[in-house]
Amino acid sequence: MAATLRRPLASTPWRRIEGVSYLWFAVVALWTLLQVVPLLVIVYSSFRQSNAIISQPFGIGHYALGNYPLAWTGTLGGTAFTVYLRNSLTITAVAIVLGVSSGTLSAYGLSKSAGTKWARVLYGLFVLTIAMPYEIIVIPLYLLLNRFGLLNSDLGAGFAYAGLVIPFTAVIMKGFFDGFPSDLIEAARIDGANELRIFWRIVIPLVKGGVIAVIIISIVYVWGDVELGIIILTLPTRLPLAVGMLNFAAQYETNNGALFAGLTMAIVPVVSLYLIFQRYVTRSLTLGAVPVARPV
């Protein structure tokens, strides 16, 4: 009987374990380190003396617990952290309320009018706005806010960010509404419910995961944006956190400890919020069948 020939196993340094290769694991681990290590450095540096951060960035000792009170009240005679925090909360609230609500309504209208010419044109404009370079949008926004006297205004900045959140929300939420069962809507119409009531009482509760995902992503974007805020907000008492942190670096002297303390206090709210609701973000964007996109 002829010997049974066996095909030799391919020799490869990356063997698969439960469908995940060592190579893929190494890439993910490296990417995680690149994201986490800078965050840990910021938090650790916030407890160290300013000079020690420069001379021994990864050293041990030379701690200064007074960095946080100094950042909270204002460093080197600058504006207090509480002023920046209040401005960021106001701008983010206005942007999220207006942007997400308007974008969600737009997405619902586009989904239910799919196939019509105006729906295709409007959806194309939303996609174009997301893909458009940021620099092209900033100048028209500045001129528009200046014309209506909304420069250096929390309300004006909120309107500007809402305009950038709307197309992102519309594109993401349209994927949810396209897969929404039409039978539920038809049944509600038979019962006498109008379109607005159907939208708020039936549709939104069933796609709340997608709404939460859009809200979280939009908050992270608006909270951390610098490019638009540094142009339309110039008064020290009107700056949001992301822009206000730049003032912690003075012309001739920089308190690095207070700077890192301010950065830590600025990122803790959004990081905590994202960690709490991350399951909604990952699950909802997958169910929406729409590629993850960042607002403009």
In words, what does this structure look like?
- The protein has 13 helices and 2 strands; from the N terminus they run E-E-H-H-H-H-H-H-H-H-H-H-H-H-H.
- It has helices spanning 22-45, 50-55, 67-73, 81-112, 117-131, 134-147, 154-178, 182-190, 195-206, 208-224, 229-232, 241-244, 256-287, and strands at residues 16-17, 20-21.
- The chain has a two-stranded antiparallel ribbon with strand order 1-2.
- It has 2 domains: 21-65, no CATH class; 79-243 and 272-287, MetI-like fold (Orthogonal Bundle).
- Helix 7 (154-178) packs antiparallel against helix 10 (208-224) and helix 8 runs antiparallel to helix 9.
- Helices cover 68% and strands 1% of the residues.
- With 296 residues, the protein is mostly helical.
- The longest helix has 32 residues, at 81-112.
- The radius of gyration is 25 Å and the shape is globular.
Set down the secondary structure blueprint.
Layout: E1 16-17, E2 20-21, H1 22-45, H2 50-55, H3 67-73, H4 81-112, H5 117-131, H6 134-147, H7 154-178, H8 182-190, H9 195-206, H10 208-224, H11 229-232, H12 241-244, H13 256-287
Helix pairs in contact: 1-13, 3-13, 4-7, 4-10, 5-7, 7-10, 8-9, 10-13
